[in-house]
Structures are given as C-alpha cells and as structure tokens.
Amino acid sequence: MPVRFSFRRMDAAERRHDGPIPPAAPPPGAARARLFQRLAAEQREDIARRRQALKAATLAGDTILRRDQGLLRFYRDQGAAWTASRLD
C-alpha cells in the first residue's frame, strides 16, 4: 500500500527505488583551488584579529590560535596542491 501524503508535492519526494543514491559530481580542480585559497585568506584574517585581541603574555600558549594556524597550513597546502594539479 503506497504512502499517502496530505500535500501533493511531498508525494514526489518519496523514493521509488532501492538503489543507491547517485553521488554528486565533485567540483573541478580550479574551483577547489579557489575555494581553498579563499578559506586560507579568511583564516589569515581570523588569525590577525585573534592576535590583536590577545596580550603578549598569553599569545604563545593560546590553543585556539594554534588550531587556527593548523587550519591555515591545511588550506594553504590544499590550495597549492589543487593549483599545481590544474597546471599539469
């Protein structure tokens, strides 16, 4: 017995097959490179704001700043890798 919905549009959202959901197409390399470059730029701004807000005595032991620097390193590495793969 099929499920009946009170709204017609919800009936179209019902899955009618048992197969796997097709995966989304990944963005091309150029789009990924721009994404990671933009994320790195935003992370640099966040780190600069955090450094300005902290006092010199607490700057060296700040765990949030250390985490943000790790994220910046990851974004830079990914952006550089996708840019290099695009040039090949």
UniProtKB/TrEMBL annotation:
Q: Where is this region: Disordered?
A: 1-29
Compositional bias of type Basic and acidic residues: which residue ranges?
8-19
- The biased composition feature labelled Pro residues covers 20-29
Superkingdom of the source? Bacteria
Question: What name goes with this protein?
Answer: Uncharacterized protein
